[in-house]
Give the backbone structure.
Amino acid sequence: MELTVLGRYGPYPAAGGACSGYLVTAGTTRLLVDCGAGVLSRLAAHLPLEGLTGVILSHLHSDHTSDYFVLRYALEVAQFQGRRREPLPVWAPPEPAEEFGRLGYRNVFTVRPVLEGQAVQVGELTAVPFAGRHSVPAFGWLFTAGGAKLAYSGDTELYPDFPARVQGADLFLCEATYTETQLSQGARNHLAAGQAARAARAAGVKRLLLTHLSPPQDHRVLLQEAQAEFPAAELAAEGKTYSVSA
Ligand SMILES: [Zn+2]
């Protein structure tokens, strides 16, 4: 399995950067996880857009979905030109209902609601959602293929069994929006880098990538705070492909 980081910023992109978007591949399977601002042009550098196997949206906030509404045009054109016939499978939380209702578009997508713990098979990838704690319903995901295990936090604040949900991941892609100082000042709905790192340690993951980086933060502080708890922590790098193996 491989993970390519297409965008690592939230809730808006840094100059020249992109919001959340990750390409997860295994064999011939091409799964796009989240599709925020700037992700589509990055994705197009890796594959023809109609070559996707499926799309998972962790939750329905615009920094994870805005380019999804442009992807539909690319797929519509591909259908019109005969480059793709079948609709693209999409999985997303069913709430907020108004946002979920906007995801369908003509015949280009088949949109399915995500249910807690209910596994989804996307080509050669098995994907299992787990509920996060955010301002709208949000899921993290565990992806497995050929024994390798990739965990993604989605957007969440800390909750008691969070480490258990990502137990033993070979690679843990975790949001790290805040510094410890901001957390102590009452910041909510997201994780601090130190919390991500403590969860990684408790879960016994092999490798930790910090993502959902907020542009005005000093990312060196986030990295330092994470490395104090999990020395091997890294900042996710846009454009980089990470190998995930057991
Ligand atoms: Zn976000």
